[in-house]
Amino acid sequence: MRKIKIGYWPLSQDFSSPGDRRRVVFWAQARGHEIVTDLNQKVDVVIASEKSDFNSANIAKTNTPVIFDLVDAYLSPTNLREDLSRGIAHCLSGQISGRVKSFSANVRDFCLSADAVICSSVEQEKIIRQYNSNTHIILDSHDELPFNVAKYSSITAGQDSRILWEGQPATIRGVRQISTALYNISKTHSLQFDFVTDEKYFQFLGKYIQRNTSALLKKDLYGIFEKVNISSWTLNNLVDSARRSSIAMIPIDLSVPIQNLKPENRLLIMWRLGLPCLTSASPAYLRVANQAGTLGVSEDSDSWESNFELFLNDPRVALAEIERGQTYISENHTKSILLKKWDRAVESVLG
Fold first, then answer.
1. pTM above 0.85, yes or no
2. Residue 324 near residue 292 (C-beta atoms within 8 A)
3. How far is the C-alpha of 158 from the C-alpha of 162, rounded, in Å?
4. ∠ at Cα 229 (228, 230), nearest 5°?
5. CA of 299: how far to CAs of 78, 164, 281, 287, in Å?
6. FRET pair for 41, CA 20 to 30 Å: which of 138, 180, 190, 251?
7. What is the largest CA-CA distance in the chain?
8. Quick check: 122 and 112 in contact, CB under 8 A?
C-alpha cells in the first residue's frame, strides 16, 4: 500500500487512550502513514471512533471513504432507558449533532453509512454484519507490553500469592460476581489482590460524576478489602504488578451486554505478561480457551473457587496454562498478523 493521509477522529486528543495507541495509531506508525485530526484537510480515508460526531459534515458530506472503528458492543444496549439517555447526553454535550435518538441508533446508522466497519471480536461481527457487510475483526496490539516467558520458580505452592486485576473502572464491578469465591480462598491462602486501574473515574460518558475506585472495591469486596492494593494504571505499574503476581483474574458481569461481548484483549495481555488467567465464561473467553486448550474459564462462583485452588496449589497446571496461552498468541496474535488485517481493511475502501 502507498503511504496515505488518514483523517482520524480519536478517542483522546493526544492518542494516549489504549483504543488509539493500540489500534489505528499502532498501524499508521508501523506502516509510515500520516494521521491528522483536522478533518478539514484533504485526506485519503477517514477513520472514526465511537467518540466521533457521526453526523459531522466532515464525514457525511464528503466523497472520502469512511471506516468506523467500533471496538465496543454499543449495538447491544443494556436497556432502552440507558440507551436513550446516552444518546440525549451525547447530543446535549455537542458530541453528536443532528436530531436526538438513542446511542445505539446513532451507531447503527453510522454502520449503515460507513464504507467499512472494524470491530474487535467474532461475536461483535455477527451483529455488525446485519448493517455493513464490509466488516473486519482486528484486536488491539499489545506490543507495548513485554512478552514474559513463564518460569516454574515464580509459581510456588504454599507461598504468599498475589492475584492481579487490570483494566478500566467501567469493568471493575465484575468482582462482585466472585466476591464469595475470593473471600473463601483468602481464608485458606495468604493472598493480596492487586488492582491496576484508574484511581478515580467518571460515572457517565467519561466526563460526569467523578467517583473513587476504592469506594467501589470497598463495597464489593468488603470481606477482604484490607488485602486490596490499588495502583494507578501505567505500563510500568502493570508490568511490575504482573511480575509479583501468581494469577490474573477477569471476572465479568455477563448480564451487561457491553461487558459480555468484550473481546479477548485482556486475556491475551495476561498470558503475554506470563500469568495464568481465570475468566468469566463470556463468548470470547470461551472461544479462545477452547482454541488454546486452557482451563481458566469459570462458569459460576464454585468453579471460580475450585480453579483458584487448582492454580494456587499446583504450579505445574498454572505453568502449562501460561505456555498454552503464549503458544496461542504466537500463532494468532502477532504484530505481522495485526498489520496485515489493518492493511486489508483500509485497502477494502480505497479501491
1. yes
2. yes
3. 12
4. 120
5. 21, 19, 5, 14
6. 138
7. 64
8. no
Phi and psi, residue 52, nearest 5°: -75, 160
C-alpha cell recorded at residue 230: 490499588
State residue 334 phi and psi, 5-degree precision: -95, 165
Is residue 228 within 8 A of residue 221, CB to CB? The reply is yes
State the Cα angle at 330 between 325 and 333, rounded to 5°: 90
Which grid coordinates are listed for 191? 493472598
Cα distance between residue 108 and residue 210, in whole Å: 29
- Residue-wise pLDDT for 118-166, tens only, equals 999 999 999 999 999 999 999 999 999 999 877 644 555 445 789 999 9
All domains in the chain, ordered by first residue: 5-141+333-350 (3.40.50), 152-332 (3.40.50.2000)
Determine contact, residues 275/151, Cβ cutoff 8 Å.
no
Q: Identify the residue with better confidence: 351 or 87.
A: 87
**Residue 266 in grid coordinates:** 485482556
Beta pairing class for 66-69 and 34-36: unpaired
